[in-house]
Amino acid sequence: MSRKLSYTCIVLSVLLLFWHYPRLPPLLPLWYGKPWGADRLAHPLWLILLPAGSWVVIIINAIAARFLTRDMLIFTQIFALTSLLVAILSLVTLAKIIFLVL
Question: pTM of the entire structure?
């Protein structure tokens, strides 16, 4: 169940990005860990890192759940919930960035 929700969040992220991509400005804030100014700005194509990062986390957690937790179901559930949390946070972050600049 949580894996399907994770995939849904990733699909929604990609759809949101491609739906609003033509209206995005040439530079937008993405690197919030950097000092204020031009260092924070990135080309809108860098936003694909958010759903791609979620996808990587889901794949790594699925592999870990398959090979490392055959006997302990709780770890499999923790991996699935972690993937879901990362996908949801990625979707929220992408939506906040997009709606901040539009």
Answer: 0.90
